[in-house]
Amino acid sequence: MAMNSFEWVDATTVEQAAGMLAESTEQRPVIAKAGGIDLLDLMKEGILAPMRLVNLKTIRGLDEIDTENGLSLGALVTLDRIDSDPQVRARYLALSDAAGHAATPQVRNAATIGGNLLQRPRCWYFRHDHFHGEGADEMGSRGADENQHHAIFDNDKNAMVQASTPATALVAYDASAELAGGANGSRVVKLSDFFLPPEMQRAHDARIETGEVMTRVIVPPLNAGAKAAYRKQTERDSYDWPICDVAVVLTMEGQTVQNASIVMGWVAPTPRRAAESERLLIGNRLTDDLARQAARAAVAGATPLAKNSYKVPVLETVVRRTILAAAAG
Ligand SMILES: Cc1cc2nc3c(=O)[nH]c(=O)nc-3n(C[C@H](O)[C@H](O)[C@H](O)COP(=O)(O)OP(=O)(O)OC[C@H]3O[C@@H](n4cnc5c(N)ncnc54)[C@H](O)[C@@H]3O)c2cc1C
After folding, report:
1. How far does the centroid of ligand 1 lie from the alpha carbon of residue 23, in Å?
2. What three-state secondary structure class fits 235?
3. Where do the domains of the chain lie?
């Protein structure tokens, strides 16, 4: 499929970028570009045909990491830097591991955390031009024939899963996104409320308005004694999208769990909290048996499709292992 011609603008300020993005219409789309990894795919796949691209990488100051009070990641910080920054790794191990296990070294060098959170689904019905305009949403749904990689929860209407794997860790850490340039100025949205079930016709599968620029990802300070782990299960050992991924953040006093945050990715249209598993852990001494019970609770109520019931035992195992890995520190 041939790409359309488009105009390229190097933005120098967030306000300038937001102003240009606010002019976007269906007929004349104006689209932000960060690392360009997903954007270029979407353009080559014929899903996006921008009239103008607004390059955010020329805006100064959006690539800073600040670990002073919790963690602030400028939206242009790359996945590679999140993986390799010693302060981030020392304090937010599950996030570093999630970034370091995403994609390939080349992609991680270019991909930014803002663009990563705003990437579109990898559903093959969504991506294939054969299905554009004739119901990728329906094809990505329960009725789809090839649903090996689709959701096993909340899949009654649409079974595409949200693609970002760092999102799994960020939701577990209770992180937020800062958005600037909208009608009400700057605002901060919790990532647990940010994602929307993917739909073909949306510009983003997230609560970001036309004309808004993501400026930062903010992670709150950790409780004393917090320990975390991230695990991503793939079909093969080299780079791959997950069957599922899991992030666990525990606050421990000795062997007793004081607080637990367990989030699962690639199993539902948005990152899914394992609330019942958290409840089982909190206030109790963490044993292998308790981790097993919590993992069983995490998959309760799953509604797998014709070809993805294999995900249920895989997820159960990954939840159990990630809980034990977090507790082991
Ligand atoms: C081989 C391969 C394997 C991969 N494996 C994984 C994986 O395991 N896990 C994973 O999470 N990802 C994976 N990815 C996806 C990749 O990580 C994302 O495509 C990338 O992170 C997107 O970031 P970007 O900076 O390139 O965003 P872009 O492509 O530049 O932008 C993506 C979207 O976000 C918008 N956008 C970007 N930044 C902003 C901003 N600051 N404000 C407002 N809008 C913005 C753009 O308009 C666009 O709609 C893989 C990709 C490839 C090619």
Report:
1. 23
2. coil
3. 226-328
pLDDT in tens, 36-65: 999 999 999 989 999 999 999 999 999 999
Among the listed residues 234, 328, 323, the one whose alpha carbon sits nearest the alpha carbon of residue 281: 323
Mean pLDDT score, 300-316: 96
> Tens digit of pLDDT for each residue in 81-98?
999 999 999 999 999 999
241 C-beta closer than 6 A to ligand 1: yes
d(Cα 183, Cα 191) in Å, to the nearest integer? Answer: 20
Ligand 1 atom 31: residue of nearest CA? 115
**Which residue, by CA, sits nearest to atom 6 of ligand 1?**
103
Write the class of the CATH domain 226-328: alpha beta
Please tell me the distance from the alpha carbon of residue 35 to that of residue 40, in angstroms, as a whole number.
9
Please, are residues 231 and 197 in contact by the beta-carbon 8 Å criterion?
Answer: no
Q: Return the structure tokens found at 208.
A: 């970001």
Number of H helices, E strands in the chain: 14, 12
